Amino acid sequence: MTENCRAMWTDLGLDLEGHTALLDVLGKAYQDIYLSQKNRPEAMDYFDFVMSEIHGLRIMELLDEKKAGRKIIGSYCVFVPEEIVLAANATLVGLCSGADFATEEVEKLLPRNTCALIKSSFGFKLGKVCPYLESADMVVGENTCDGKKKAYESLSHLVKNLYVMDLPQVKSEQAKALLKTEYDRFKAAAEHLTGVTITAESLKQAIRTVNAKRTAIHRLSSLRKADPAPISGLDALLANQVFFYDNPARFTTSVNKICDELEKRIADKKGVFPEKAPRILVSGCPQAVPNWKLPFIVETSGAVIVGEESCVGERGTRNLTDESGETIKEMMDAIVDRYFQVDCAIFTPNPDRLDHIQEMVTACKADGVIHYGLQFCQPYLMESIPVEKALEEKNIPCLRIETDYSMEDVGQLKTRVEAFIEQLR
Ligand code: BJ8
User: Fold this and answer.
1) Which atom of ligand 1 is closest in space to residue 315's alpha carbon?
2) Residue 54 CA, ligand 1 centroid: distance in Å
3) 173: buried, middle or exposed (CB in 10 Å: 19+, 13-18, 0-12)?
4) Residue 27, CB half-sphere, CA atoms under 13 Å: how many?
5) Is the per-residue pLDDT at 234 higher than 90?
6) Torsion of CA 220, 221, 222, 223, to 10 degrees
7) C-alpha of residue 286 to centroid of ligand 1, in Å
8) How far apart are CA 66 and CA 82, in angstroms?
9) Alpha-carbon dihedral of residues 328, 333, 335, 338, nearest 10 degrees?
10) Which atom of ligand 1 is nearest to 117's Cα?
11) Nearest CA, atom 14, ligand 1
12) Beta strands in 19-63 (DSSP E)
């Protein structure tokens, strides 16, 4: 840790002791989980570097952007449109985290039986350990699940620049009109924050930039269809996680570089796991950095994860925004069309998600599905039962797990995952 970083974190108001403890745990987990993998693509070096500097160089870059007049907007959900943020001359960063922190303090503000994702957002704020949150000029909360929307009421007392976006919960024309109204309101708020008026040119460029990011991820996903799998699920998940932090153009180049390497590996029939290793699709709640618990268990038990039906994965990146619009109105409509297809479990009914899971099983050539539900996440836990039923009807094995960010259940999970993998063999 350089002196420059320490000074930067102090200026941001971080608690240095707590932050150092967090980085130590993160560094150790990364070493044990990621760097211990064999036969990784060389291009993953870039992602190793990003992770080693995730609270260092990347934060310096963001602060440099701020000095140059750009604004930083933080978000907790894939419904916050990066296209609008970029077009308003701001940078979007993801704020969800995948580790428990300051739990005792958190439970003074939130019920114990709140999902780990929400609790960790509070923990990172209360413990003053997130430089992204502290750099953000605006933090966007969204009315999605009940847990999040009520939590933002409390978060508004801790984060002075919180902006709450309303979101529909059904897929009707009125609901789409609500999304449109909310995206127009967000566009105005982003313009107000940055002092920059979005133009047709800036919006078009922003749509292209975000589409390029998503297209690179699509390319990566389709290469994971190969057997033997050319990349581990852990590494692919990491790319999907870094999607929320990195400079968009650099991210796109880096993912494409991995893909170039994977194409060669596939041609040489080179994989990270032996041919015919059981292939698993993970479906359910988002897995934010450093929540690598499930893929680590799966991939140290002899199976490979070949896709993530998740917001840190396919659900977040599946659709592109139509680039053909010429006016701001046409492009804003295209953005609404694109995001309205996101099949988060907060929607009712939500049949598209069932279809998408089955489509992904076929596309990824998965042998089975693990439904990943965070404890106390009603939307995804509720949907896990119809998901399992629909898969069983098609003779696709499914394992439903419910867990949190702690390591207490690792042994028990490993036993269940190993038994499931045996069944797939
Ligand atoms: S679009 S999945 S990113 S809301 S795990 S907080 S649902 S209780 S994260 Fe999400 Fe947007 Fe939907 Fe995607 Fe609530 Fe469940 Fe917790 Fe969750």
Assistant:
1) 13
2) 23
3) exposed
4) 11
5) yes
6) 50
7) 7
8) 17
9) -160
10) 16
11) 145
12) none
Distance 356 CA to ligand 1 centre (A): 17
Taking the chain, what is the end-to-end CA distance rounded to the nearest angstrom? 46
Query: What is the biggest distance separating any 2 CA atoms in the chain, rounded to whole angstroms?
Result: 59
Q: In sequence order, what are the beta bridge partners of 304?
A: 279
Report yes or no: 111 and 135 within 8 Å, Cβ to Cβ: no
Q: How distant is the alpha carbon of residue 337 from its chain centre?
A: 21
How far apart are the C-alpha atoms of 375 and 163, rounded to whole Å?
27
Q: Which atom of ligand 1 has the smallest separation from the CA of 285?
A: 5
Residue with tokens 């953000």: 136
In which band, very low, low, confident or very high, does the pLDDT at 128 lie, cut at 50, 70 and 90? very high
Cα 40 to middle of ligand 1, angstroms: 30
CA nearest to 267, candidates 306, 215, 228 = 228
Nearest residue to 420 (alpha-carbon basis) of 403, 394, 401: 401
Give the three-class secondary structure for 74.
Answer: strand
What would the two tokens of residue 265 be?
A: 């590996």
CA of 117 to the centre of ligand 1 (A): 8
- Specify the pTM: 0.97
Q: If we measure between CA atoms, which residue out of 332, 326, 321, 63 comes closest to residue 190?
A: 332
The secondary structure of the chain in percent helix, strand, coil, rounded to multiples of 5, reads 55, 10, 35
Mean pLDDT of 331-354: 98
Digit-coded pLDDT (tens) for 376-416: 999 999 999 999 999 999 999 999 999 999 999 999 999 99
Which pLDDT score, from 0 to 100, does residue 26 have? 94
Q: Token pair for residue 51?
A: 């992770």
Residue 285 C-alpha to ligand 1 middle, in angstroms? 7
Q: What is the pLDDT of residues 130-175, one digit of tens each?
A: 999 999 999 999 999 999 999 999 999 999 999 999 999 999 999 9
pLDDT computed for residue 270 by the predictor: 94
How far is the centre of ligand 1, averaged over its atoms, from the C-alpha of 96 (Å)?
10
Spell out which residues line ligand 1, taking CB within 6 angstroms. Answer: 77-79, 115, 117-118, 144-145, 147-148, 285-286, 311, 342, 344, 346, 374, 377, 379-380
- Token digits of residue 227: 């057997």
Q: Which atom of ligand 1 sits closest to the CA of residue 344?
A: 12
